[in-house]
Each structure stands twice: as structure tokens, then as C-alpha cells.
Specification:
heterodimer, A: 164 residues, Ubiquitin-like (UB roll), DNA polymerase, domain 1, 2 domains, 5-stranded mixed beta sheet, 35% helix, 15% strand, globular, B: 763 residues, Aldehyde Oxidoreductase, domain 4, 8-stranded mixed beta sheet, 7-stranded mixed beta sheet, 27% helix
Chain lengths: 164, 763
């Protein structure tokens, strides 16, 4: 029942990566089971929970709904690529400061989604944050502290860019 | 960290103004791992030679299994083993405690793999291990099961009918402690009888009566169940899984597979939410069986979201009838109620705790409550945050609102008049000691939200209160002092939302050191003393207490070492804020830690506790809603949750518990429900159709932490996790009534229900 595997050449978190996969395998499955990037989580496997969010060529996607073969020649950013060499990204720092996580399972998806939001809208309103994050389910926090963390990140990053 | 970050939290210093660590907001020790994707959850494990398991589930709600043929599946290349109910021992009826409820091990085994009959859509029938998850799934399709389909029983009242088809054909009702004469779908009938309800209703001048129905709902944790097992040829079994209690998994697997607990090690991985649903085992015994049958290879199993919804969790749907009376002063005189709770396929609904929670906040002298635990062809229910409480309190709080309206009283004032105080007897018979219910009512009345004008059309404000017993239970911790003066702490409680830190903070406070100098670690079943699961709002309370005891034992040893160094008697030395002193002489803990070897070697201490007195929790919520009369959609405009939290050890995460509980309560109240077709197939097995709240559905949730310290705990802790899910449904129902004048008597109060009620009002 094994299908012949395909060779895929892509960029993940800035590094060139090659892997073999079956045509039916999702990007999420390959990230987790083949490449050992288990930060992206499987919560539903049909695009409803956002726990597997990654950024594909600048767009936020559910990696469970992308076939692994589709990333040939493209660029993927996962939760493992959000922090820089100098340490945590401001979003990650603000999640910690605001206690914007409880169990932490949905957290990678929220952080990736928030990064994608701030990349295209550096100064979102509360309504815009809530709308954007509606693709991500959290069952622990009631979203309050998550929304505050994202709004606070936007402020801090705006301040940092003014200083520069 | 700022203490004024969220909402309008109030942190009183009544209990003890001298705390250094407790009440602060440090960054949790596991935080960096969780924001970078490095934390290892159950499904993240990968072992050399690992196989993958998959489960074949029943497509029928109620059927007899005539035959199972696995021969085709076994020949598929890559398949390593197939197991069915025949691989499990048939167990005798044996009831044991498990995570805020009880479990019959014969039923637990039957739920793990069906024998003779399947009792719900999704009931496991067989399991396969293979070299890839896809091959395992394909092999499932080749297992041939012949069923004789039986009539499903899907509604609680119908299930009680004497002629209803029986799920468990040899089950008799536990009728107030007596065994019934005929088998029945009613597993148990419980009763609370206090005073004389007839006399109570005679003295009432106003009596209200109403019936309510609520749907089955799921805990909705985002991480699906998972379990990985490695059986060794020497008989040692290791299980890695996502569970609320590693010792609970060990005990259940030991019974189901008939192996001694000493042969099993359970390693709790990080857990992606539980809310009660991750106390029972599902996959763990299957993975162990498959590992053994696959030639002692590790086997990993994970559930799909549809498996999670169809076959794990949920909590009971219910039918509740209440009659409630009050005298001419507005004082409650009597309550009579009948509560029918769906147990699902096996006994064990939370009707008992629902009976206690329902009027937990009120003083009523005459009480007659009958509760029934009823089997239906739906998944076996599991605990869900304040089990049985939310639906019961919803019904009760609507009745309280109706009465306060009849008396023309402010609903909070009505609750103040009838609310329990210290020394009052509860409606479930126990007498309350130091409680903080009245304090929550007072804080709610004074809160600016309560007097803010409602400006929008079709908007209304509702209030409701809630109660939860809380729990103590067994907990263990141990710690060792490092040469740099820091402390490594091993504790037995799985951390679902910051409890590592709240436990470490109690150790740090006890030792007088910074929480940054404590490194907490959640131990496996071989490395820490017996600890019950993370349930019952017990973790910060009981395991925190164990950590406090550890700190006191460490201090005793440390003082002895200091005495040795200074050549004095230990009694002459005082220890404070992480330092020793005698007269003018001082030495810090860090200095002494560097001299352990010269004073006798390493220092460690361990403690185990089993507190019996665990202060109950009360909450009062205020909510403003706007109802769209065209669509029936409810928009939450503002939400304030007031709660007696005892002493907030780690306020960030106390607020988080309150906010999360509110969000779950809102989902239960407005959207979430199990939808079955007439054959008993669950039709909404995905998270688009099982609609949990998203960020856009909620406003900010303001929390008010009232601190009435629990005198039964060294730091005044009360459990905080469960109470906040209890009031939201009642508060929303009362707010909807204020907004559009209809009293809804079923959950969820979805747009369709509201439109129907509005239409009925017009007709």
C-alpha cells in the first residue's frame, strides 16, 4: 500500500530542506513526523483549530490543509522559526508576561497567527485582533490575555521601530 | 511585573501582608518551552522502531457483535498486530474512585474494547498496529464485523421507561442503596431529604415551578487523546501519555491488563487541556496490548478530532424539574427537584454533584431532591469542570431570578437575603465553615459594571451565582538543595495551566527564597510519591501544601547544619527570608548550600499530604447582552466575574482560570451541543459544527478576586478552577430575559431557540 515517495526541496525557517513524502501526506504530518518539528500541533486535522498554523510565503495557513508536496520551492515559517538568535520574539515575550497561555497546546498556532497579523497590520484594533485570531481555538484562557498580549506586542514593536 | 495588569483585579492583603512570593506574577518556569514549540506534548514523542496504532469504532449506537474477522487485516504488509475484546480479560464489577467520580472497572474494560455489544457510535471494537499510521488505518477497513443492530436509546426520559431497550442487560438500579428487582437503564437513584418540604411549601406565599433540558457537551480540550506504550520482554511497561493523573493511568491500566502497578511506569507528557476528560484511559491499554503483541515494539496512538468528540468526554445532557417556594419576606422555604442525567453508555453521570451544586449558594431548610443516573446510547460521560454543576445551577439561577422578580427585589439583594453564611447548613447537608459567598455578592453590587447604564436596544443585564465543593486528595513532592542555593522540586501533579509555578511559589515562600531559585519538575510514577490527578481544583491547594511541608522539613535540616557550622544548638538559630542568624552572626542559605559537604552531605526532603478540609468556592457573575430579534443571536457586551479565591497564590493564573471557566460556560450556554440522528450517529464531529467560542464571540472578561482565606490551608488557598464555569449559563439566561422578555428553559440558547421563544411569545 506504500505509494512511491516524492522528493521535495523547500525552505523552512530560513534553511534549505529536502525531504521525501507520500503524495497524501500533509505538510503538518511531514513537519512533525519526518522533520521532527513538533511545535506545530494537530488539534483537528481539518482546518478548524489553527494549532498547526505556519506562514507559507508570507501567508498564514493551516499546515494540515496543505499537502507537503505543495511546498516545493516555497518558504515556510513554523513556530520553531519565530524566535531569533538573540532570543524570544516580542510576541513570545508578551505571551509570557501576560500569562496568555495555560496548557500551551494552542500557543504555537496563536503566536504564528499573531506574527502573520502584525507583519501585515502593525497596529491592529482589539476588534481586528479578535477577528484575525478567530481561526485559532483556545479552550483554556477565554482569549482575554491572548488579545492583550498581541495588542501590547504591537505597541512595543511600534516603539522599537520608532527608536530605530 | 506589574500587579495591575488585567481587568480590575483586587488583591486584598487581609490574610497576611508579609508574603514575599505569594501573590506576585513571575513568569512560569515552563513558559519559554511553551512559546517556542519545544514543550513535549504526548503526541510529540518519537521512539526508535515506533509503530502506529489505530482504532476501529462502531458505526452503530446500539448493536450486538455477532462476529469479528481480523484475518484479512493481519495480512496487510506493514501490519504488526490486531487486538479485539477477546484479548482483554473479563473483569468483575468493581467500583473505584477516579477524578471527581467513580468508575466500574468492568465497564472501563468494556469501554476500552467492546465485548458482545457496542453501546454508542464510536465504541472501540478492534485496534491495529502498523509501521505507519496510514497503513494502520487502511487495515481497519479490512476488519469484518457482523452486527445485529438494536434500537438505540437516545433520550433520558425514554431510557427510564420500563419497556425501553436495555443497554447493559444485567444492570440493576441502585435504588437509594437497595438493588432493584428488575434490570433497568437507571443505574442509580439518589435522594437528598432535609426538613419537610410539604410544610416548607405550606409556609410559602410564592411558588415557582419550571422544567429545563440541557444538551450533552464536550470538554473541548484542543489536544486529542494520545498514548504511547513500550512493553519490555521482562514484563515492564512504560506509558507516555497526556493525562490529568499519571497514577490514575497506572491504576486503570493495571486493572484492565491485570498487571501489578509495580510493573508499570507512567510518564506524564505536557497536556493540552483536560477539564476532567483526561482522567479515564482510552488509548493507553490498547497501546500496551499492541506493543506486547507486536513483539515488544513501542506503539503510539493518537485520536482524531472526530474520535475525541464521538468517544471521549462528554458531560451529561439532562432533564431537570424544580419547584421552589419563598415566604412573604422573600425567604426561600422549600425546594423540590427531579434531575435526570445521561450517564452515556456506562453508569457514572455527575448527577450526585449536580444535586449538591444546584442550590449550593442558598439557605433552604426544606429540601427534597431526587437524582437519577441513566444510561443512553451515547459515549460514557467523564468529569467536566465542576461536574454536573453548570446545567443544575443554570436551572436554579433562572428560578432564583424568577422569584426575585416576583418580589420586586434586586436580584443580588435577593441572593444576599437567601445566601449562605458561615455556619449555615447547605442544601446537601454539610455545614459551611469559613466561606466567602456574601463577600462576592457585596463586591458584585459595588462593582461599577452593576450600576453602568445599558444603552442599546434589546440589551439586558443578568446575574447568577455558583458553588463548587473543591477537593483535597493525596499529593506528594520532594526537593533537594543544590550547592548554589537553588532548589530542585519534583511534584506529582500534571501541570495544565501554570501549577508548576503556583506549587513552586509555595515552596519558595516557605523557604524565604525567590521563586526563580526553585526549579519545578513534574515527576513520573517512579520518581515521586502518589499524587492524585489534576482535578477537583485540588492541585495548587494540595500539592502546594505538600511543597510547603517540604520547605519546613528542609528548614529543619538546614538549621541543624548551620548549628553544626557555628557550633551552637539548633534552637538558638533563627531562620528568616532565606538566611540564618544568631545574635550578630548571619549566613545566607546560599552560603550554607556551598558548605553542605563539610556539614554532612546532601540535603533533601519529601512530604505527602491528604488534606480533608478544603474550603468550597463561590462566585457571582454579571453579564450584559444584546439580542438581535431578527436572528436570535446573542452578543455579550460586558462580563464581570467575582469569585472568592481564598488566597491567590499566582494571580495571573487565577484570573486565567476564571476567564477560561467563563468562556466554557458561555459556549455551553449559547452554542455547544451534541447532535444525534435518529439512529444515534453523532452528526457534528468536527470543530466547525461543534461550535466552541472563538475570540470574536467574547469581550474582555473582567475578574474580581475576593480573598477570603481558607483557614484550613497554610496559605489560605481555595481551589479556583471549577467555580467559574457554574454561573455563566444562568447569568446569560437572566440577561436574555431582561433584554427580550423570554425565559429560555433549554441549553444551548442558540439563535434558533431564541427565535422560537420570541415567536411563541408573539403568538
Amino acid at each position: 500500500m506504500m505509494t512511491k515517495k516524492l522528493h521535495v526541496h523547500t525552505v523552512i525557517n530560513g534553511e534549505e530542506v529536502e525531504f521525501l513524502c507520500e503524495p497524501r501526506q500533509s505538510l503538518l504530518e511531514v513537519l512533525r513526523d519526518t522533520l521532527g518539528l513538533t511545535g506545530s500541533k494537530e488539534g483537528c486535522n481539518n482546518g478548524n483549530c489553527g494549532a498547526c498554523n505556519v506562514i507559507l510565503d508570507g501567508s498564514l495557513v493551516n499546515s494540515c490543509l496543505v499537502l507537503a508536496v505543495e511546498v516545493e520551492g516555497r518558504s515556510v515559517v513554523t513556530i520553531e522559526g519565530i524566535a531569533g538568535p538573540e532570543g524570544l520574539h516580542p510576541i513570545q515575550q508578551k505571551f509570557l508576561e501576560h500569562a496568555a497561555l495555560q496548557c500551551g497546546f494552542c500557543t504555537p498556532g496563536f503566536i504564528v497567527a499573531a506574527k502573520a497579523l502584525l507583519d501585515q497590520n502593525p497596529n491592529p484594533s482589539e476588534e481586528e485582533v479578535r477577528h484575525w485570531l478567530s481561526g485559532n481555538l483556545c479552550r483554556c484562557t477565554g482569549y482575554d490575555k491572548i488579545v492583550r498580549a498581541v495588542l501590547d506586542t504591537a505597541q512595543v514593536m511600534a516603539l522599537q521601530s520608532t527608536k530605530r | 511585573m506589574s500587579a495591575e495588569k488585567t481587568g480590575d483585579s483586587t488583591l486584598s492583603k487581609e490574610h497576611n501582608p508579609t508574603y514575599q512570593v505569594i501573590g506576585t506574577r513571575p513568569i512560569r518556569q515552563d513558559g519559554t518551552d511553551k512559546v517556542t514549540g519545544r514543550a513535549q506534548f504526548g503526541a510529540d514523542i518519537h521512539l526508535p522502531g515506533m509503530l502506529f496504532g489505530a482504532v476501529l469504532r462502531s458505526p452503530h449506537a446500539h448493536a450486538r457483535i455477532l462476529s469479528i474477522d481480523t484475518s484479512q487485516a493481519e495480512t496487510v504488509p506493514g501490519v504488526r498486530a490486531v487486538v479485539t475484546g477477546a484479548d482483554l480479560a473479563d473483569l468483575e464489577d468493581k467500583v473505584t474512585e477516579l477524578g471527581e467520580g467513580t468508575i466500574n472497572l468492568r465497564h472501563q474494560s468494556w469501554n476500552t474494547l467492546a465485548r458482545q455489544k457496542v453501546l454508542y457510535y464510536g465504541h472501540p471494537v478492534a485496534a491495529v498496529s502498523a509501521s505507519s499510521p496510514h497503513i494502520a488505518e487502511e487495515a481497519l477497513a479490512l476488519i469484518e464485523v457482523t452486527y445485529e443492530v438494536l434500537e438505540p436509546v437516545l433520550e433520558v426520559c425514554a431510557a427510564m421507561h420500563p419497556n425501553a431497550p436495555l443497554l447493559i442487560e444485567d444492570m440493576y438500579t441502585d435504588e437509594l442503596g437497595q438493588k432493584s428487582e428488575k434490570p433497568s437503564n437507571v443505574a442509580a437513584h439518589y435522594q437528598t431529604r432535609i426538613g419537610d418540604v410539604e410544610k416548607g411549601f405550606e409556609s410559602a406565599t410564592v411558588i415557582v415551578e419550571k422544567e429545563f433540558r440541557t444538551s450533552m457537551v464536550h470538554q473541548g480540550y484542543i489536544e486529542p487523546q494520545n498514548g504511547t506504550a513500550l512493553y519490555n520482554p521482562d514484563g515492564q511497561l512504560t506509558i507516555w501519555c497526556s493525562t490529568q493523573g499519571s497514577f490514575g493511568v497506572r491504576d486503570q491500566v493495571s486493572e484492565i491488563l491485570q498487571i501489578p502497578v509495580s510493573k508499570i511506569k507512567v510518564v506524564p507528557m505536557e497536556i493540552g487541556g483536560g477539564f476532567g476528560g483526561k482522567n479515564p484511559v482510552y488509548l493507553e491499554p490498547l497501546a500496551a496490548l499492541l506493543s506486547k503483541k507486536s513483539g515488544y515494539q513501542p506503539v503510539k496512538m493518537t485520536m482524531s478530532r472526530s474520535d475525541v468528540l464521538a468517544a471521549t468526554g462528554p458531560t451529561s445532557g439532562s432533564y431537570i424539574h424544580i419547584k421552589l417556594g419563598a415566604d412573604s419576606d422573600g425567604k426561600l422555604t422549600a425546594v423540590e427537584a427531579t434531575m435526570l442525567y445521561e450517564a452515556g453508555a456506562f453508569p457514572g453521570s455527575p448527577v450526585g454533584s449536580g444535586m449538591g451544586v444546584m442550590f449550593g449558594p442558598y439557605k433552604i431548610e426544606n429540601v427534597l431532591i431526587d437524582g437519577y443516573d441513566v444510561l443512553v446510547n451515547k459515549p460514557r460521560t467523564a468529569a467536566y469542570r465542576a461536574p454536573g454543576g453548570t446545567n443544575a445551577a443554570y436551572a436554579a439561577e433562572v428560578m432564583i431570578d424568577m422569584l426575585s422578580e416576583k418580589f420586586g427585589m434586586d436580584p443580588l439583594e435577593f441572593r444576599q437575603l437567601n445566601g449562605v453564611k458561615n455556619g449555615d447548613r447547605s442544601t446537601f447537608g454539610a455545614t459551611y465553615q469559613r466561606i466567602g459567598y456574601q463577600e462576592t455578592l457585596e463586591a458584585a453590587r459595588k462593582h461599577p459594571h452593576y450600576s453602568a447604564p445599558l444603552e442599546k436596544a434589546n440589551s439586558g443585564r443578568g446575574v447568577a451565582s455558583g458553588f463548587w465543593f473543591n477537593y483535597g486528595g493525596k499529593s506528594s513532592a520532594s526537593a533537594s538543595l543544590n550547592p548554589d542555593g537553588t532548589v530542585s522540586l519534583i511534584e506529582g501533579s500534571v501541570d495544565i495551566g501554570g501549577s508548576r509555578t503556583s506549587i513552586a511559589m509555595q515552596l519558595a515562600e516557605g523557604l524565604g527564597i525567590s521563586v526563580d531559585d526553585v526549579r519545578p519538575f513534574v515527576g513520573d510514577t517512579d520518581s515521586v510519591g502518589y499524587t492524585e490527578g489534576t482535578y477537583g481544583s485540588r492541585t495548587t491547594f494540595a500539592t502546594g501544601w505538600a511543597a510547603y511541608e517540604v520547605s519546613q522539613k528542609l528548614i529543619k535540616q538546614l538549621v541543624e547544619r548551620a548549628a553544626k557550622l557555628w557550633e551552637v544548638h539548633p534552637e538558638e538559630i533563627s531562620y528568616q527570608n532565606g538566611g540564618f542568624s544568631i545574635g550578630e552572626k548571619h549566613m545566607s542559605l546560599k552560603e550554607l548550600a556551598g558548605k553542605l559537604d563539610e556539614t554532612g552531605g546532601p540535603i533533601m526532603a519529601s512530604a505527602t499530604v491528604r488534606p480533608g478540609e478544603y474550603g468550597p468556592g463561590f462566585a457571582t457573575h454579571i453579564v450584559d447582552v444584546e439580542v438581535d430579534p431578527e436572528t436570535g443571536k446573542v452578543t455579550i457586551l460586558r462580563y464581570t466575574a467575582v469569585q472568592d479565591v481564598g488566597k491567590a497564590i499566582y494571580p495571573d493564573y487565577v484570573e486565567g482560570q476564571i476567564q477560561g471557566g467563563v468562556a466554557q460556560g458561555v459556549g455551553w450556554a449559547l452554542n455547544e451541543e451534541y447532535m444525534y440522528d435518529p439512529q444515534g450517529k453523532l452528526t457534528n464531529t468536527n470543530l466547525l459544527d461543534y461550535r466552541m467560542p472563538v475570540a470574536l464571540d467574547l469581550p474582555m472578561i473582567d475578574t474580581v478576586m475576593v480573598e477570603v482565606a481558607n483557614p484550613g490551608h497554610p496559605y489560605g488557598v481555595r481551589g479556583v478552577g471549577e467555580v467559574p464555569i457554574v454561573p455563566p449559563a444562568g447569568a446569560l439566561a437572566n440577561a436574555i430575559y431582561q433584554a427580550v422578555g423570554v425565559r429560555l428553559n433549554s441549553l444551548p440558547m442558540s439563535p434558533g431557540q431564541i427565535l422560537e421563544a420570541l415567536q411563541a411569545e408573539k403568538d
